Structure formats: C-alpha cells, structure tokens
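agent> Task received from the user: take the single chain below, predict its 3D structure, and emit structure tokens. No templates, no multimer pairing.
agent> Plan: (1) validate residues, (2) run structure prediction, (3) serialize to tokens, (4) report one or two observations.
agent> Step 1 OK, no nonstandard residues flagged.
tool_call: predict_structure(input=
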Amino acid sequence: MTKRSTSKPASAAPTRRLSQELVIDAALAHIDRSGPHGLTMRSLAQDLGVEAMALYRYVHGKEDLLEGVVNRLMGDLTAELDDELAEHWQGFLQMFAHRVRRIAIEHPKAFPLVATRHPAAPWLRPPLRSVEVVETLLSTLVQQGFSDQQAVTTYRLFSSFLLGQLLLESSVRGADTGPVEEPLDEGDATIPHADGELTLDDAPEVLRLRPLLSEDRSDEEFEISLEALIDRLDRELSQ
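)
tool_result: status=success, residues=239
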C-alpha cells in the first residue's frame, strides 16, 4: 500500500510588507536606473512584487511619489548638515556645496527633480528647496556675522551657482534635465548620436582644442567656481 504523504502543500510566497519608506526608496532606485520618465506606478509595483493598487496606500500617485523622492534626498542633506557644521562660514559653504554635489553625483538622474520641481514655498530657490535646508543655511550665516540682507543674498547666489553647475554635471552623467511629462513629437529632428559624426570644418578653434574640450574637468571646475564665489562674497562682506 502506498504511504500517504503527510507533508503540507507549499504555501504561496508571502506578500511583501510595504511601507512608505520602502516605496520611496524603491522609486529612487528605479529612477537611478531609468530616470524619472521610466518610473510608473505599474513598473514600481513590479519592482516590489505587488499589484500597482497596493502602492496607493502609501502614495497618492506618481506626483506624490516624485515629491517623496525629493524629500528623501533633501532629508539626507539636512541630517548631514546637522551632524557637521564648520566653524567658519567659508568652510560651511564649502561643506554645504559638497554635500549637495554628492546628491548630484550619487543620483544624477534624480537630481534634476531636486533642481527643477516646485520648491516647498514659492520664495525658495532650487536646488535648496527645503525649508529645513534653507533654515540651516541662513541661521548659520547669521550666526557667523552676516546681516539679514547679506545672508539672503548669499543664499540666492549660492543657489544659482549650485543649480547651474550641478544640473550641468548631472546632464553629463546621463540625466534627462527636461520635464518629466512626455515630450512632444517634433517630427524628424536630426540628432547626432556621437560627436565623432560632426564635422568641425567651419570651427577650426573647436577642432584644434577638441582634445582639451573632451577632458573631464568637472572636479576642478567645481572647486574653481566655488572658490571664486566664496572669494567674491568675502570681498563684498569686507567692504
């Protein structure tokens, strides 16, 4: 007589336990791979092994999801600034700038969201779009002896420098700096796929300097631009 098996049938794999933090982290990882254009609620659900409707318990939709990613990145920045404040304002701005730049380097495809989405308030400027981040910046500058006007002017100049420099770096590192919405079909635009296909016959200086133009000097350029900004502020404050 055949012995009946007493083993229990294998149960289905347990549903992955979600949380808002897990959903946001997965969205950031997805953007790091595919950019914000490649993120949909359905594709994110596939990453997490759940149905798309399960995500709506934690975020209201893609816009809410993108805001969560931005807040996640800015929250990391705020925590680091609280942990390490330099003694002098020059060192503080140096440290501050490098912390923001690290976001752009580690998450180049997500950084344009930080830089281009609406800030927390209309009078804030990206990429320093978080009230907490701006509070840390302004309060530190005032404590270092800046007047109110000097502190606000520094914030504006500093934001402009970071926005231009780091959006450029993110673009070089593969980010799409255009809007997240689907682009319009503009017809048969001719877009070269590599600079080797371009002719430089009418640009002799570009052709002559092409080896230098092709070098990656982003580290040096960042330092030079940052030092020039701080030197300018130093001269203005000493007048």
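agent> Step 4: summary for the user.
The longest helix spans residues 148-172.
agent> Done.
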